[in-house]
Structure formats: structure tokens, C-alpha cells
Amino acid sequence: MPEGKSHKASPAAAPLSGGDRSGALPDEILHRVLSFLPAQQAVRTCVLARHWLHLWKHATGLRVVGADGKEPALFEEIREFVDSLIILRGSSPIERFEVKVAGAAIDVRNLRLWVRHGMMCNVQVLRLKVHGGYASQMLPFKNPSLASSHLTKLELRGLVFNNDFLDFSRCPAIQHLILKDCSFRNAERISSQSLKHLTIKRSEFNLSSRIPIHAPNLASLELQVEGGRTPMLERMPLLVSADVLISGSCDYCLRSDNGDCGDESCKGCIPNDTLSVLLHGISEAETLSLGSGTITGFKVNVKMSGRFNPKKLPSTMPPHLKIVQVRCGKVDKRVLEVLEYLSKFNISMVSLGNTLTLSIFLSSGLRCCGN
Amino acid sequence: MEVDKGKGEAEETRKVAEADRDTVTLKSSDGKLFEVSKEAAARLSTVLAGMIAGGSIDDNGTDLKQIGSEALENVVDYCNKHANSIPSAALISSSISFNTAPFKEPEEWERKFVDRLSHDALFDLVEAANFLGMERLLDVTCHKISEMMKGKSPDQIREVFNIKNDYTKEELEEIRQELAWAFYDD
């Protein structure tokens, strides 16, 4: 049967109420309607009527998800379906491609093939979410770095990245990168010239070396480190908001509060003559939230302490910083040191997100409000 | 709750003198006039943006002969609600463009907006959004149609949309065999 031709029906020609309004819509609109359905159901619309026979091949989005559209699909059940789908649909362009799969025996070769199909179809938004067989299982995703001038948004979950996968030099249009429940232990860098929004949640990093994050055009950063060395942020002069949470990390020095215990072999220390880990990136942010989730609390924040020594003002001044939120269990000597340090900048108010009520006026005029 | 607000405002602003207006007047196929913020119209509709930029807007009502008054009222209502729903901070951010941004799930107010529409009104609005090049409204309305199909059997979908099954039994059987991979759990 020939493919249905586009019906450019004007409303005047549309059937009266009770007629088939869907059949009067231009095919491009039906392609869009199908893009929101789980792929299995989108394909099955071919049996509705002749007009629908080939519409699924041109759906502008592909959703490889469970039948309810939200839960992941079982990889074992859906593998053959997706393999057939990508062969038979041809290379019709896809705006959005979502793959959300679960299973104990996910074959990464299929996933790589599916991702390549998306790239071939000029996908703009790619989501690949892998839910392993048991809670913390992640899938080693050995893949060359992606190359596409169309990709604008990439969301990945449950993957272990190989060394250069996160180098996006061949994706010049990418703006959004969202990585959740991923492992960066084997990654060498995260790098993109075009990236504007970066979210890294529930992720573990390399235990012995810091990976650099090179994203000079970043406007917003959300970074959660749950293990390994906190990544090293390179300069991000356009950053507007940053939300950094270091938790469950061993990335601090047990012997010193200010980040330099004097022992050169100490991996938790950031000696004063080395680059700051976070400050290079976040110092230009207007809104900044820094947090640590360990019991020792503030101790972890000495990650910044290579620059936090109140006696030596850092070379990286944060002139754009407007709001600093200090969250801590109690205000002790260390917190006061931080406040005194912050008072040297042109910061008018610091709020402490703890349960204490306090009002401190430091000699420099910094007003400090607790709640 | 604010369903009639857009309409009321439109009627009121129509009385305001012309000249340097920050609204445009649109005329439906049945001759009714609607007022919409120039800023919102330009932001949400590529066609209206082109007309505004090209100076082809008629102060006495730009003819939109393809769109009926009920659909046009919904279009205007959507534009007004959209303008009200965006935090000013987001508007300032120049990176926001509602005609090129990737699809995002409809927001609560957008869901409500399309949920209250009758079947015919929804399809009229889809056609109006398509005609006016309103990408976001097209996504929201198409998403609504897909929701009406989701989880339903072919028979149920045909019933919802009055689709006439024009296949023969043999043809259907042939399709099912050819696409057996897609009917794996039937």
C-alpha cells in the first residue's frame, strides 16, 4: 500500500462533529502525536486504518519505555522489537529518542546500535537510562564519543563511562547534559565548548585522580559527588547558578581543617600552591549553594580551604557572588573563620541554614543572620 | 478559574486607542476580533512573529480566515496564560525560545487548559496552532491526543476518534504477520 499523502485539510472541509477528525489532520501532526506514545503502541497504530499504515515510521520521537510510558521496559522483552523498529522505520528524522530499559542481562551492543540509529536520524534530544539488575549496577558503556551537529540535549543514567566518551568536541550544538547514577571512574574529562547546563547527580568519581570539567560557556551547574575525588572545575565565567553537594566522599584531609596538613603524600590535601578545585569554576556564580552531607559536616568543605585561609586572600575573587548559604550543624570556630573570610568580599548577607538563632556582626561589617 | 479572563481583557483592550499599541488584533473566520499581547504572540507563534516583523498586521483586525472564533479565543487565551506563567527571570534569560526548545512535559496549567476542551475544540486548536506555527501549543495539544490513545486497544482508539477501519480482514492479518515483531505480546 502506498504511504498516505499529507492531507492539508482546511477546517471548512473537516467532517462535522462525529466524523474522524484525526484522519483530517496533516500527517506531520499525526507524526507528532505518535512521538509521545511508547514505541510499541505507536507502531501498532498501523492497524487502525489504511491512512495509519506507515505513519509510525515518521514519528518525530521514539520512546522505548514500558507500556505505561513511565517505567523502564524490560530489555529482554524489547530488544528484538527495537532492533526491528530501527531497521524498518528507515532514517526518518527523530527529534527525541528515549531509551529506558531495565534488566539483569542488558547487552550494551544493542544500546550502542540504537544510539547510533538516533545519531543517524539527527536526534536532538537523546535520553538513555539504564536500570541494572540490582540497585547499584551500572553498565560499562564502551562507546566512542558521540558526533552530531544536531544533538542539543543528552541525558544518561546508570552507565560507566570510558575514558573519552564525555568529550563533546564533536557535538558542537549540545547545551544540556544530565548524568545521573553514573560512574566517572574511568573517565578522563568532561569537555564541551557549547554546554550551558550541566547536572551530575548521585555519581562516583575516580578515587585517585581528579577529572577536569571543561565547560567555559556553562550557565548552570548542579554537581553531586558521592564518592571519589571531586572533579576539578575549570573557569566558567558565564556561570549564573551553582549547586554543589559533596557527600559520602573521602576527599578531604583527616588531619587538618584547612586542607593542608603539610604531608605532601596526603591525597586529601590541597596544598596552597595548587589550583583550587571548585573555586575556579564557581567563583563567578551569582547564586551559589555549597553543601556537604557527611557527619563531620563542615570538615569536607575544606575542599575550598586551599583558598579559605583567612590570612591569604585568594587570587580568584568572586565579584559576582551575591548569595552565600552556609549550611552547618553548629557554628563553631571553623564556621566563624569562613564567615570572616567571606566578609572580605563584598557580600552583605550570609545565611546559616541551621537551627540556631544567631546574629553576628563581624568587625568588617558583615551581617550574619541565622534562622 | 481564569478561563474567561483572557476574553474579558481582550474585549476591554479593544476599546483602547490604536497608535503605538503593544497588542495585535486578530480576526477569526467568522469576523470576531481578539486582542493579544504583541510580545506573547511574537514569542509563541512564528507566523504572527513574521507578520509583526513584516508590518502586515492590520490594526482593524488581521484576517485569520482559517481559524474559527472558538479556536482563536483558545489561542489568545493560551498566549495570555503563557505570558502569566513564565517567571520573569526566565523571560530575561535570552536562551528561552518556545519555538525551538526541545519538548518538555506539559505543565499543570497547560494540562488543565487542554483537558477542559471538547473533542472538536481540541482538534480545532491543533489546526489553529499548526497554521500559526505555535510549536509549544502544537506539542501540548498533540500530547493530549496521544494521552487519549495511550494504553487503548486499536478498537478503543477507533471508537474515541471515530476512525473507520477500512482494511479487509485478510489485509489486517497480513499486516500482523509482517509486523509480528511489533505484536510480540499479543
UniProtKB/TrEMBL annotation, chain A:
UniProt cross-references to Pfam families, sorted A to Z: F-box
Classification via InterPro entries: F-box-like_dom_sf, F-box_AtFBL13-like, F-box_dom, F-box_SCFL_complex_component
F-box domain location: 25-57
Name of the molecule in the record: F-box domain-containing protein
Naturally occurring in which organism (per UniProt): Digitaria exilis
Lineage of the species this protein comes from: Eukaryota, Viridiplantae, Streptophyta, Embryophyta, Tracheophyta
UniProtKB/TrEMBL annotation, chain B:
Domain SKP1 component dimerisation per the UniProt entry, residue ranges: 136-182
Limits of the SKP1 component POZ domain: 23-84
Pfam families on file: Skp1, Skp1_POZ
InterPro entries per record: SKP1, SKP1-like, SKP1-like_dim_sf, SKP1/BTB/POZ_sf, Skp1_comp_dimer, Skp1_comp_POZ
GO biological process, one term: protein ubiquitination
SMART domains: Skp1
Keywords from the named record: Ubl conjugation pathway
Ranges where the record places region Disordered: 1-21
Gene3D superfamilies reported for this sequence: Potassium Channel Kv1.1, Chain A (3.30.710.10)
Annotated metabolic or biological route of this protein: Protein modification; protein ubiquitination
Subunit structure: Part of a SCF (SKP1-cullin-F-box) protein ligase complex.
PANTHER family named in the record: SKP1
Protein family membership: Belongs to the SKP1 family.
Role: Involved in ubiquitination and subsequent proteasomal degradation of target proteins. Together with CUL1, RBX1 and a F-box protein, it forms a SCF E3 ubiquitin ligase complex. The functional specificity of this complex depends on the type of F-box protein. In the SCF complex, it serves as an adapter that links the F-box protein to CUL1.
Protein name listed in UniProt: SKP1-like protein
Organism expressing this protein natively: Digitaria exilis
